[in-house]
Design brief:
Layout lengths: L6 E5 L4 H12 L3 E6 L2 H10 L4 E4 L5 H14 L5 E4 L16 H27 L4 E6 L12 H20 L5 E7 L22 H14 L3 E3 L2 H11 L1 H8 L2
Parallel strand pairs: 1-2, 1-4, 2-3, 4-5, 5-6, 6-7
The structure holds NADP nicotinamide-adenine-dinucleotide phosphate (NAP).
Length: 247
């Protein structure tokens, strides 16, 4: 995909991968709009990068998304790239009888429903600005999950699936759908759960550099580093790949 002179809206631009991509895409000469729930973070990012814009949008809240579309029509009517990046990750022991059903649904509302609602709500604006691009941020864990975070892996497998169907439905349009699966990357996602003995974690700058390169190359199904190994392993030997992830 072309990565200059685009108008790019990133969900979850207030930290981690979204923020890293926002900075790099701004640097490349794009109009970048970051969204998320933490206004102070978004404001600070835009202050440090003149020209970058933001508005608050909670992707797990349909009304907030509808308001976001209105804001986008005002501040970036030429929107031609949507990066669906917002996400949360939780560990759950499904045998724990004290688990709240509400807590079990949060990842689905953010990682899956949020992505579907945002895509559907912003499609009319993207259609006015073709050629356009939708980038769905999935995960290597969508190919082979970590059982300690059972809902997370399920939402990311669903995102991989959704990207295929959306791409098919948009095949006669000028809207390209890219699925981007990161490996473990340094960010706030794990909320400090990973510890030093966990799997290797990619530096954010290295990930952003690899992601930008892959996006520019025209690839539509991007899996970076360990995520590519999980994608291949899930196809060639799913049981062994799962067992390696979940000893
Ligand atoms: N880091 C990794 O190891 C890794 C690996 C594979 C895939 N990913 C995926 O990469 C994406 C970015 O995650 P990250 O690693 O950069 O984690 P992060 O640093 O925690 O960033 C997550 C972003 O999502 C936003 N977000 C969370 N809930 C939201 C909601 N309800 N509405 C709007 N925005 C929301 C957060 O902003 P606010 O809190 O301000 O709303 C934040 O900007 C996620 O989809 C994640 O699943 C990450």
């Amino acid at each position: 995909m072309q990565l200059t002179n685009r108008t790019i809206l990133i969900t979850g631009g207030s930290s981690g991968i979204g923020q890293g991509l926002a900075k790099a895409l701004h640097q490349l000469g794009n109009q970048v709009i970051v969204t998320g729930r933490r206004k102070d973070r978004l404001e600070a990012l835009c202050q440090a990068h003149p020209g970058m814009q933001f508005f608050v949008m909670d992707v797990s809240d349909r009304d907030s998304i509808r308001q976001g579309v209105e804001q986008a029509q005002q501040i970036c009517p030429k929107l031609d790239v949507l990066i669906n990046n917002s996400g949360i990750q939780r560990n759950f022991d499904l045998l724990n009888e004290e688990l709240s059903l509400e807590a079990l649904g949060e990842e689905i509302d953010t990682n899956l429903n949020g992505l579907i609602w945002t895509t559907a709500a912003f499609l009319p604006l993207l259609k006015q600005n073709t050629p356009a691009t939708i980038v769905n941020v999935s995960s290597g864990l969508g190919y082979s999950p970590l059982a300690v975070m059972p809902v997370y892996g399920a939402t990311k497998a669903a995102v991989n699936s959704l990207s295929l169907s959306l791409r098919h439905q948009l095949r006669d349009s000028q809207i390209q759908v890219i699925n981007l699966a990161p490996p473990a990357v340094e960010s706030e996602l794990d909320q400090g759960r990973r510890g030093s003995n966990g799997p290797p974690v990619m530096a954010l700058d290295s990930f952003v550099e690899a992601a930008i390169q892959a996006l520019q190359s025209g690839e539509e199904d991007i899996a970076i580093g360990m995520a590519e190994q999980l994608r291949q392993g899930s196809r060639s030997d799913p049981a062994v790949t799962f067992a390696r992830m979940n000893p």
